[in-house]
Design brief:
The protein is α+β, with helices and mostly antiparallel strands and about 325 residues long. Helix content is about 20%, strand content about 35%. It has seven helices and 18 strands. Bound molecules: zinc ion. The site of zinc ion has 5 residues, from loops.
């Protein structure tokens, strides 16, 4: 069975809890770190020990923004009895047909009295807010395990921006008048360390920062989208454009002298002429880049080889 590794996208799940309410991984993304622990069977000694420890440390996990979820192939009723009997606070999900267990690679074949049977290998996964597996632990022992997982999450949150890390951040760009020109709605990620994933001045400022820290960088046009180039403003015959043309529309075109492909914005339309501007809309502007680090992780070997982030949606085609 294929095992997961840190840096891979966590397989999604949508399973019923002890109250038969559906719980999905998607519901926690962006907000929580998810600790997903797979165990063998409700109310057996090892699994009870594991649930006691996770349950006892639940407040500490919550303080780090982490939720703890147990999964086994028991049904919802069995989970409900197990929780009631011991008064556990952890959430338990029921994966009766073992599909989620299988997607996390935790099923193994065991021989018992000469007969082969499939059972769960006790395993725990720590999934970042971005849906990427940070730690994959197969074959864990229950005693002391919750404390060990808590330390891993503390370590994740202390991880600093450095060469070959993937940085997730939110940012705001303001012009020299202090007006907002761009703002992220969701965190964006880039590969740190000279891969052209972000402005190099911003990389310098982010070195050594950890999740939750902010930085402010004042960028001259040459540090950002370049100086404004008058030569990239061109007047074209209107007949070259579709009849529905409007100011603000954008077209791809070749620059007159270099032949480079640029995005041109229509800035003016006369009866038979159209003015297009091949400068970036923020060219020539001094900008203030203000950002907050959302998360930092090590890049995978594949990401380093490609020079860009692959992220929670797995590998994309180039
Ligand atoms: Zn790639």
């Amino acid at each position: 069975m294929l095992k997961l590794q840190g840096g891979q996208a966590a397989p999604g799940f949508d399973l019923p809890d002890a109250d038969m309410e559906a719980v999905s991984l998607g519901g926690f993304l962006k907000r929580n770190v998810v600790v997903l622990y797979f165990y063998l069977r409700d109310d057996t000694p090892g699994c009870t020990q594991e649930a006691i420890e996770f349950s006892d440390m639940q407040d500490e996990f919550a303080r780090l923004g982490a939720v703890v979820i147990g999964i086994s192939t028991d049904d919802c009723l069995s989970h409900s009895e197990f929780l009631d009997k011991h008064g556990f606070g952890v959430q338990l999900l029921s994966d009766v047909d073992g599909e989620v267990c299988s997607s996390y690679g935790v099923l193994q074949e065991k021989e018992h009295e000469g007969r082969k049977k499939i059972c769960v290998l006790r395993s725990t996964f720590v999934i970042g807010k971005d849906g990427v597996v940070r730690h994959a632990m197969y074959g864990v022992s229950p005693r002391g395990h919750a404390a060990q997982v808590l330390e891993l999450i503390k370590g994740m949150q202390k991880m600093q921006v450095a060469q070959d890390t993937v940085v997730s951040l939110n940012y705001e760009l303001q012009n020299s008048e202090g007006e907002l020109v761009e703002k992220t709605e969701e965190p964006v990620e880039y590969l740190h360390g000279g891969y052209d994933g972000i402005f190099s001045r911003v990389e310098e400022a982010l070195n050594g920062k950890a999740a939750g820290e902010t930085c402010d960088v004042y960028l001259q046009p040459t540090d950002a989208f370049g100086d404004y180039d008058e030569k990239l403003v061109q007047i074209e015959p209107r007949a070259k454009f579709p009849p529905t043309i409007e100011v603000g529309m954008r077209f791809e075109g070749q620059a007159g002298d270099s032949g480079e492909t640029l995005v041109y914005t229509v800035t003016d339309i006369a009866e038979d002429k159209v003015v297009v501007d091949g400068n970036h809309p923020l060219a020539g502007m001094s900008l203030r880049f203000h950002c907050t680090v959302n998360a930092v992780r090590k890049a995978t070997a594949e990401e380093l080889q490609h020079g860009h982030v692959h992220g929670a949606h797995g590998h994309h085609h180039h």
